[in-house]
Amino acid sequence: MIEIANIIIVLFIILGAFFHLIAALGVLRLPDVYTRNHAASKAATLGVLCILLATFFYFYFHESEFNTRVLLCIVFMFLTAPVAGHLLGRAAYHHGVKMEGSKVDEYEEYIKVKKSNEPKKYEAYKKKLEKNL
Amino acid sequence: MAVQILLNVCLGFMWMFLTTTYDLVAFIKGYFFGLLILFVFRNFFSSRFYLYRVYAVVKLLFIFIKELILANIAVVKIVLTPKLHNTPGIFAYPTRLEKDWEITTLSNLITLTPGTLVVDISEDKKILFVHAVDMNDVQDEIEAIQTSFEKAIMEVSRK
């Protein structure tokens, strides 16, 4: 029983470390803020999750201590990481950071339409979008 | 939904008082019988029998976890390929959801799906702006996934 638990713990730690490594590599390798954001916000979340789960299992099986704080931490990570990614991307866009090699940018159009402050233009823009889909 | 759960808890306590045994087992028994009673009287409530909604929430949770794992596999693939040949871009996605919490949940789910990240939500809360890592092949697939997300969220909020 304790052997199986050890295998699970080691597996989770290795997986977590691997995902952190991937997140770091992604931040180094990818060309612009937005794609880096993808790598960091996703891989780091799952990495932290795996390591926290390993911690939880270690204390549960070896010290038989049911640590709810670790589980709460997992829930908070789940809830906050995507929001942080969203806000970083948004802040970068509004500071005029360019995307590397992009073709499509429908957000730029939206900002233009919004700044013109004409509801008619906005309606036309929305209709155009619905045709696209 | 909240009213039904509260009523069910009250029925559990009622069972404890009727049998004059005050422990957890008695409460669970009472809760179970109260559940049956609520199921029989489900037509008298304005919303659905609440277990359906609990089931929908659990399903949404599993979708969340599955998508997180899939997204990470996709990230690993993108990062570890020797040559980067993706074309990023931002596309607009009109949503049918209306309440704030639904839109928040949808954008969180989209952020955790493979290759997409929500950049902004339009002021009238009708359009989501999503940054995609690869615009070429992913888009149709993304649309399919997101309609399934929307369905799952609507299943939770349906009356």
UniProtKB/TrEMBL annotation, chain A:
Topology relative to the membrane: Multi-pass membrane protein
Residue ranges crossing the lipid bilayer per the database entry: 6-28, 40-60, 66-89
Keyword Nucleotidyltransferase among record annotations: no
Primary residence: membrane
Signal peptide start-end: none
Cellular compartment(s): Membrane
InterPro entries for this protein: PhaG_MnhG_YufB
This protein's UniProt keywords: Antiport, Membrane, Transmembrane, Transmembrane helix, Transport
Similarity annotation: Belongs to the CPA3 antiporters (TC 2.A.63) subunit G family.
Protein name as annotated: Na+/H+ antiporter subunit G
Organism: Cytobacillus stercorigallinarum
From TrEMBL, chain B:
Membrane-spanning intervals of the chain: 24-45, 57-80
Organism field: Cytobacillus stercorigallinarum
Primary localization class, coarse: membrane
Pfam assignment, any one: MNHE
Lineage: Bacteria, Bacillati, Bacillota, Bacilli, Bacillales
Name of the protein described by the UniProt record: Na+/H+ antiporter subunit E
Membrane topology designation: Multi-pass membrane protein
Transport listed as a keyword: yes
Compartment(s) of residence: Cell membrane
Presence of keyword Electron transport: no
Family: Belongs to the CPA3 antiporters (TC 2.A.63) subunit E family.
